[in-house]
Amino acid sequence: MNTAQPLALLGGLTAGQFMKRHWQKKPLLVRRAIPDFVPGLGRSELVDLAGQEGVESRLIVNAPQGWKMRHGPLSKRSLPPFKQKKWTFLVQGVDLHHEGVHALMQQFRFVPDARLDDVMVSYASDGGGVGPHFDSYDVFLLQAHGQRRWRIARQKDLSLQPGVPLKILQHFEAEEEFVLDPGDMLYLPPQYAHDGVAVGECMTWSIGFRAPQQGELARELLLGLADEAFEGVGHALYSDPRQPAVASPGAIPPSMSAFARKVLDQALGNPQLLDCLLGEYLTEPKPHVWFDASTAHVDLSAGLRLDRRSKMMYDHRHVFINGESFKVGGRDARVLRSLADGRCLTAREVQSLSPNAKNVLSDWAGAGWLHAL
Ligand code: SIN
Ligand code: CO
Q1: Which listed site, 237, 253, 307, 343, has its alpha carbon 20 to 30 Å from 246?
Q2: Does the residue 256 lie in any domain?
Q3: Nearest CA to ligand 1 atom 4
Q4: Structural domain of residue 201, as residue ranges?
């Protein structure tokens, strides 16, 4: 993507300017971000998705007695009638299930794939919404159908109402208010308070992000290191030819704790292994994602494209796909990186790969991770 080209999607800013001025910093309202936007995903398709096992969905009703929430799968019959006001249902990860939504998400790849998470789609009856709240991640709220009134605030007081089954701000005081029409979009940085209320029936697409959390990332990497450590660090036994005789046998010898520190440093001191584990972690498919594997031979000579569920990234030594890492160099590395960036390869690019890399691509095709053009 040309990050220096002004984009209607970002209100005429280049991706570079947007990242510098707004990303993680301040909101941006874009009128006609996608002019004449036709969502290509209707209410009934979304209802069907929300009813599926393995698709994450929620029903939120703003009833006179208070907020109510139910997790999916949501059968069609269990939903209130659309004539009833003040309810909404939300479906997570729609990009995994719908080609048009997946295609839309590609427009946001001026942010690294390692940060891009999914597209959540909500459908609300008149007056419906999830209440005033804040999110921990950046979000682009694209109005897909109908109108929604957004009220937003930079407020510091992020205390939540107690005893409510969803996150609702206790003291929300809007600073700005906009009504979004189809194709309009609002970007909000993390922790920015917001409340979106449907004006008539409305559908909103939220392009969401993820950010590894310190403790969780450390845990994942250490678990991976633990699997590798036995082979990687070696099998040598602790030895203590200089151990003096002791009068207090219960005390752990300092040389034993030094040995423990040394083996851990050794395990952590392999930067290649850490890079591998990070790439594998970042490309790990989400729970409930499965691919259509096949044993039939797939002819990739005319070119190929990644399956929309495939996650592919790279670093300077490896390519990663769906939780696996491959060490690559030279021309193969250049072509496979271009597959990760562009999500497809031409016949010529496939032709230029080594026999080894072609075999790997055939394996990926067999696993359903990519498809022939
Ligand atoms: C919605 O689409 O109703 C909620 C999106 C959000 O506020 O994050
Ligand atoms: Co939100």
Answers
A1: 237
A2: no
A3: 130
A4: 8-209
